[in-house]
């Protein structure tokens, strides 16, 4: 079975074609600037075919999907003979609300339910819907599956997902913590159990997805029992440009003092805050490392804040689960920054953690970076959200 995995943004579309017999990626690519001038980078990974990396007119997502199919099946750049070899399409959908606790086969009722979740993710769900509709238009009766970022967190108990506001806001408006990065947390926790050689049902794992957007999940017996993001991805850790946890009174104070509208305030909190706002340097942790090494105190402060928050939230989840067997670092910072991993792990001495500096210096592979005698194991596991989507699609369609 060959499955096309689609991750549609408002003006972009990422994709991978995966052969599920071997779970190998046959081709991957990115359509950018959809609706503007258009660009496609298509990379075949089998057959020695060349990379296509050129501007293309992509007025809508339908033209983008058509361009992807054309490249996947072309004589020069293709990896399949025709569309008939593509058995199904798996779509990343950011928000499923309380409607979806697992991945589902797309039909008209599912599309309507995804549309009902637009108020919870106004920037993301419309793009995901556009991508699904474009595929349905171009690919006809090929089965489509929706895989939700939020569904993995639907196992959280009420004590973890509820906000302490009047209960009717939850009943009438769905105000609660939903969590995000669910496919990533699900993949790395499952892979961690494999590496430990134990059933995930017997393990307590803290998964640290650390990138420009960051979240932590407490996973007890394979089920999420808490996570750091909330009603939106704005809260939790300080991130690249997002503020993380913040006293709501600060918002009122700044809006009153500077005359900001709520949209202006949220733009500041989403796009101008986090480590960018603290450092004044960059949202890229590599830039912060370089600036801190040159003596930039604000860059160092931003890094220290991020490391502290990861350690603090991880510690709270150890308490919530009454123990922990493993801690996993993943995503851009988690997979690539040995200095951040080392700094965060220094807080875990109370857990009996010691980091092996040689193992911690490696990147791009599944590896245990704690020493063999560490009571709690620490791993680096590159995330693979596309494979989770492809596996769910296979299981549902198959």
> How many individual domains?
2
Number of strands: 14
Give the count of helical stretches: 15
CATH architecture of the largest domain: 2-Layer Sandwich
Unreliable stretches covering 5 or more consecutive residues = none
Main β-sheet: number of strands, strand sense, barrel status? 8 strands, mixed
What's the overall average pLDDT, rounded?
A: 95
Q: Mind telling me the CATH superfamily name of the largest domain?
A: ATPase, nucleotide binding domain
The radius of gyration is: 22 Å
Strand content: 15-25%
Supply the CATH class of the largest domain.
Alpha Beta
Distance between the termini: 9 Å
Instruction: Please bin the fraction of helical residues.
Output: 25-40%
| Spatial ordering of strands, largest sheet | 5-4-3-2-1-6-8-7
Shape: globular
CATH topology of the largest domain: Nucleotidyltransferase, domain 5
Order of helices and strands: EEEEEHEEHHEHHHEEEHHHHHEHHHEEH
Q: Kindly report the oligomeric state of this protein.
A: single chain
Based on helices, strands and strand pairing, what is the structural class? alpha/beta
Written overview of the protein:
The chain is globular. Helix content is 39%, strand content 19%. The protein is built from 15 helices and 14 strands. The chain is α/β, with parallel strands linked by helices and 398 residues long. The protein folds into two domains: 2-148, Nucleotidyltransferase, domain 5, CATH 3.30.420; 198-380, ATPase, nucleotide binding domain (Nucleotidyltransferase, domain 5, 2-Layer Sandwich). The protein has helices spanning 61-73, 108-116, 125-139, 158-161, 167-173, 182-196, 248-258, 262-271, 274-279, 285-293, 297-321, 331-336, 338-345, 357-360, 385-397; strands at 2-8, 13-19, 24-32, 39-44, 52-55, 88-93, 104-105, 144-148, 204-209, 215-220, 223-227, 326-330, 367-368, 377-380. The strands form two sheets. An eight-stranded mixed sheet has the order 5-4-3-2-1-6-8-7, with helices on both faces. Helix 1 packs across helix 3 (125-139).
